[in-house]
Records
---
Amino acid sequence: MPKKFSFREWFEEERAKLSEMSFGKAVKYIWQYYWIFILGIIGIIWLAVFAVHRLIAGAPEYWLYASFANSIVNPPNVSRLQSDFAEYSGWNMKEKRIEFSTNMYFDYNRNQARGNEYYNSFIALTDSGTLDLITMYPEQLAPLGESGRLMDWNLEQCAELREKYGDRLIWYEPPEYMEDTTPVPVGIDISDSLLVTKYGIYPESAALGIAAETTRLDAAAKFLEFIMNE
């Protein structure tokens, strides 16, 4: 019958071995035989420190959170856009941050994006009030209005934007089987904006919608001013 492992005996044996070694040999021995455990302990400590920091500091605060969905773009272009807009906005980046995300890929035209992890992420960001605006191709933005997660530009808080960009409105048209089939403006066409012409976030055409739950409509308006080169 195999001998039952005893941590105490193992510890005493290891301590006896180490006591007979020089400091250098002891360090080498410990690393050679216990490096996995050492890295594991370091990892646990790092995670603990990270968790405590997040609890104390809380979630990051944003000046603006924008998602450039379905875009295949070089990261330097996005970095340049973010840097240029930060300078244009005049916001203090030490207080809050600007987030420009390009890692969302979904098309509501395809079975209402059911089962798409990126669409689920869009839902979470929108419903939590984190996301301020989303851009994608015009033919993809209009159907997304059915989700109810794009702001209706008929609302009073959009009056100034509607007056300014009314000739660019993109409409979601509810299907005939719905009770209310009145078209709803859910975004605008920005195909001639800097997003396309200067930064190449999209190759030819693009549209912008504002998240229904945003509390930073002024920030979204400032971004629009910037990309429309006004």
---
Amino acid sequence: MKKLKMILYGLYMLLFILIFILVFSIVNLNNKEKKEYSDDNVKYEVFKVGYLSISDSLIIDDYDDFVKYFNNNSDSRYDSNGNIVYKSTGEIINKYDRKYFNKKSLGVIYVSVPGGNDTVIVNNISIINDVLSINYYVKDNSYTEDMSGYYIVVEINKDVKRINNGY
């Protein structure tokens, strides 16, 4: 009887460990730092940037404004070659240079989330006339109350002048 209890206890512990590993894996899969999507030929990315005390939705149509905005409002910096370098990951992105802003602009939205493991999911993006519309929601993946945030960055043509965003 004692041997049976020991075997059952071992099986319960193994089951507990397997459940813990499964939950941990799911949380890590949902917590990627950068996600790139394409919706009806509109290219956009969602960057996890942590909590920022801003609530901006804006169109950036000039490289110098881009550098100034992200230097002031993100965990990024610029190296001597003009590349964006994310401090937390060391990732270098040189996609948005002066040449990019000659022909295109960026629509930028900051979304704060209540928990560090929560994610921002973009439902759809549309451009009608000169208005960029972004529909998104916050997916609650968290058991914590450590606020965080995401940038939704949309590549747009120069003729887009306004952003309409929301849940």
---
Amino acid sequence: MCGTVRLGLAFGLGLMLVGVPAASGQVLDFETTPSGAVPVDDQPLPRATPYVVDGIEVRIGFDSTGDGFADTDALFEAVGDDGTDGYNVCFQENDTARSGLDAQLGSFFLRWVDPVQSLAALPPPLVIDYNLPVQAFSGEIWDLDSFTTFERWHIVAYNGKGGVVADLTSPVTEPGCSGNTFDGEPWIFSVSAVDIRKIIITFDGDASSVGLAFNNFRSNSFLPGPTLIARAPNSAEGLERGHQGVPKVDLVWSEPVRVDPGDVSVVDGSGQAVPFTLSGSGTQVTTITFDAGFLLLNDLYTITVADTAVAVSNNAPLDGDGNGVAGGAYVLPLRHVCLADLDTPIGVLDLRDITAFVDEFLNNCQ
């Protein structure tokens, strides 16, 4: 891989609480071999020797022939630049984590046989096999980036009959050492499915020279991601009123979240983008402020925060769909109508609104 990534609520917010199941199960952090010994740098992990998690055997290796079966052992790679590294990092030593993630990277991870300095070809697929079915998995691929092109990985899970039960792809990051990259950081994937017996991780980008740094594999559990716990404004069904429109939206997360402008989109009812500025990245409150002349007014708007927004603590992607599993965009529909728009159809002022006003005046005004 080339190198290139308690807030007290003082305002009145309605809370939308989401129950998130706790992550469980042993994490294969590759700090030990299957026998429990501490590995040494560049030591092979025998593909025929399983780790055993919750009584289930987990075998890991690379498929160099493309037949879907592991035929080459992965290597334990010691963290730190030693000349035979798993990935390159900008502005610091290879095989190191950006500040704050050192403990998460640990002392070892798994890599392909060829070090990144001498890659003659792209790494072949990584294959994970189980002897019994599992219902979930999650893991990390470190340092997704590229100098001029892009790095991307495709993860497919299969059941015991060879059918696909899960399929996901890593995000495409910006080329270079800055911007939206995972330079010295993990991309975390998390999956919940039925009857998982095999996982294959394949390179799916157009970069010509990348490694594969694999770490912190939960073989039979999933990792939860940050969830939305409150928003402002927060009226019923996302319906806002007022002649001045909506100048900004505050999103409150369950933990500090790193949100970049590229993670957010705002469109009006016709699909046109609405200009905005973003603040609060790295905190629990993300504020989307709409540019002057573009306040949300008399239309249906959709605010989307992609799951490329990640937890500050461990890079777990946003759980935008609220299913308890990291991953999934958060989509907020927000309709603004004028104060006089009192009855359906919303967005149209007609006789029904006058009738509704008269009815309220005769029955509820004091």
---
Amino acid sequence: MDKLLLSCVNSAVSLVGYDFALRQPFWYCPGNVLRACGICAEGNGLWVASDNALVRLTGDDAQSLTLPGPHDNFVHSVKILGENLLGLADTGNSRILLRTSGTDFFSLSPLEGWGKDIPLDAIHLNDMISWREGLLVSAFNYQPFAGWKNDGPDWKNEGWGVIYYLRRHKGRTASRIVATGLNCPHSLCQWQDDVYCCSSAQGEFYCLQPDRHENLREKWRIKVTDTHFLRGILRVQNGWVLGGSSRRHQADGGGMALFFLADNGDIETLPVAAAGEIYDILPWNEEFMPGIADTLMRMPKLDLKGEFPPRCALSKAYFADTGNGGGTSSGESAFRLDKVLPPE
């Protein structure tokens, strides 16, 4: 595993190719070509969560699938949950949408039964993994944002984050809280018999172990960073790669970085850019990513406010290194991600 693909949200770039061996980026897609949050690979292409749509990128084209309401979706994570089963976190509507084929969805929601007037982005539900007979789902709280709190959903220091266990029972969602006390939990992952997640606002990485009641208990946790919002997990040989986002409402910003947490506990910080927010981390797929980079070079720009960098094509050096040959050179820009994302 030499190269990584990073998805970035609320950033000037949406996708970043990162050379893990060289400890530096080598490619990006600007945010005014594609808006991204969660990503996952399937077959010969990439699924991208993009606001109110799910985008399928291949070397041939980009296809967009509109998602059902009633609220804006603010779709976060997208994952393959089983054979012919795609799941996405419909954050705006506080539910997991599940797609088996075509354009039809069914859903699981921990707020099913609260009534029809559930507010937009009620609990900031954001990620899921398959577990037991259902799903584990991360969220910032266990009940809808309400007037009893304060003027805004700023819970980054409150520790009200939860992990739900959701499953279908007699045609409805059966919901149970199995872990609590997290601060803005994201990036659920199962490896071997344990469950891992980021307590993002605390900059902590948790290992959770199911007990005999199928509640998740803390096995260990590691403080990874005091300067970044921790989000994005990838298991690699001998350790973990974790994503570090610029801290919100913090003067120095923290920059955008990766952290390599070795199995022996050592932590290495790998700078990516001066600003930006990492959401997901995947292995870079040499089979389809060059074609997707070409597709992104052809796509029209989105009508968005703000300043964005020019498109970046994969370099001739990339094709020489990978031995794939060819590649797009039209519109190729000199790659300097530190210049693309100036300090905030």
